């Protein structure tokens, strides 16, 4: 197991993986791609507050990490489809666990935020 001290090291390989899958857009895109492949436009509509540039950048990063596969179909104009790889699919169980935890703990977190904000006044 990696220690907190090791995680603070900018060169820690675990940190680079956690930084990727822990960012807002990657997490949402992985969950969106979980049930089936999507075309670029479908992803853009599914995650409606992501910019086209950020969507492209995030998909490329997920491809680079081996989590997403990009398939170009020889149509006019070319169509592109994104799907989770086996590695990407292996992330779904721990991600769903985190989502379930967040859903369960949301009232406690909301209450803690309200108490903190009230104390800051």
For the secondary structure, the number of strands is 3
Using only C-alpha atoms, the radius of gyration works out to 18 Å
The computed structural class is: mainly alpha
Parts with pLDDT < 50 across at least 5 consecutive residues: none
Largest sheet: 3 strands, antiparallel
Distance between the termini: 41 Å
Question: If you average the pLDDT, what whole number results?
Answer: 91
What does this molecule look like?
The protein is mainly alpha-helical. Helices cover 64% and strands 12% of the residues. The longest helix has 28 residues. The chain is globular. The mean pLDDT is 91.
List the helices and strands and how they pair.
Elements: H1 4-8, H2 13-22, H3 24-33, E1 38-39, H4 40-46, H5 52-64, E2 68-73, E3 79-84, H6 86-89, H7 92-119
Antiparallel strand pairs: 1-3, 2-3
Short description:
By secondary structure, this protein is mainly alpha-helical. It is built from 7 helices and 3 strands; from the N terminus they run H-H-H-E-H-H-E-E-H-H. The protein is globular, with a radius of gyration of 18 Å.
Pick out its properties.
mainly alpha; 121 residues; single chain; 64% helix; 3 strands
């Amino acid at each position: 197991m990696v220690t907190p001290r090791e995680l603070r090291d900018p060169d820690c390989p675990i940190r680079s993986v956690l930084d990727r899958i822990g960012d807002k857009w990657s997490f949402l895109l992985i969950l969106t791609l979980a049930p089936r492949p999507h075309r670029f436009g479908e992803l853009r509509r599914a995650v409606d507050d992501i910019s086209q540039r950020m969507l492209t950048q995030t998909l490329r990063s997920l491809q680079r990490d081996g989590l997403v596969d990009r398939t170009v179909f020889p149509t006019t104009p070319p169509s592109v489809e994104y799907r989770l790889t086996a590695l990407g699919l292996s992330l779904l169980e721990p991600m769903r666990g985190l989502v379930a935890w967040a859903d369960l703990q949301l009232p406690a977190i909301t209450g803690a935020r309200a108490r903190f904000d009230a104390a800051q006044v």
